[in-house]
Amino acid sequence: MIADVSEVTLRPVDDGNRAAVVALDVTPAQQNYVAGVADSIDDALRYPEAMPWYRAIYAGDDPVGFVMISDNIPPGDQTLLGPYFLWRLLVDARHQGRGHGRAALNLVLNYLRTRPGCTELLTSVVPGEISSPLGFYLHLGFQDTGRYFDGERVLRLPLNG
């Protein structure tokens, strides 16, 4: 059943929703491709130089996923991809296949279009045949750059207005 994606919103993770958001998880087959929410939040705290910006994905009043980007990384740090990088996108296994991931990404893109000088969004995927998100990203318009970063394929999505 496809949900009404107009009900999808991005909300800050705070004390009131943290436990529910951290409990969200992908399928066991997908766990090799995306870190969980708790690890993602830990990464955000551990790497402030990556300029993390993260939100819970909601469908109506229910948390269904998590998204995190690097938001305008200053130039010069070759250990980071950016300046704008889709670091994590996770939709809970119980809520997949309903358009929540696509809707959340569109909301992120709307946010990025307000950011000065943002012309593209980069992301990377772990290579693999089963449960890799590569097809999802390519279907949404990301392009394979042919580059690898930290063992992952780098993709880019041009932002045209």
TrEMBL record:
Gene3D superfamilies: 3.40.630.30, The crystal structure of the spermine/spermidine acetyltransferase from enterococcus faecali. Residues 8-160 form the N-acetyltransferase domain. GO terms for molecular function: acyltransferase activity, transferring groups other than amino-acyl groups. CDD domains: NAT_SF (cd04301). Pfam families: Acetyltransf_1 (PF00583). This is N-acetyltransferase.
